User: Fold this.
Amino acid sequence: MFDKILVALKFGPASIHALEKALEIARINDAHLHIFHAMDYSFQNTDETDPEFVALKQKTENSYREKIEPIVGHLKNVTFKSHPADPALQVCKLAHKLPADLIVLGCHQLSEKISMGRLDYVGVTILEKSPCPVMLIPYKE
Assistant:
């Protein structure tokens, strides 16, 4: 049913919970799991040798190794990409390019904080612009 699953990853608890659910779906479907993390988009036009960019890239790689690799385990069909981008637009572009069969997002805001529930700008934009189905994974503390 799903061959290519795209997970929009922040490194917070809600996003990691969504990743765990996406891993379950990937295992069941023998699907390829694509994980994308949008680094600070203000670095989009920064030289890759800029010390601040190098530090941000290293922090991202360390977070992936420490938080995500242990969860992914030995699953073979997993890729991780990260670069500076608007998270919502880049996730939709990647989903179109792959082409993804499913996008998985974690709901990371508490429902009492905003009127739209647990979705912020990124979540709403992905829902509106996605070329494929979107699965929202609620997170409870």
Q: What stands out?
A: The first strand starts at residue 4 and ends at 8.
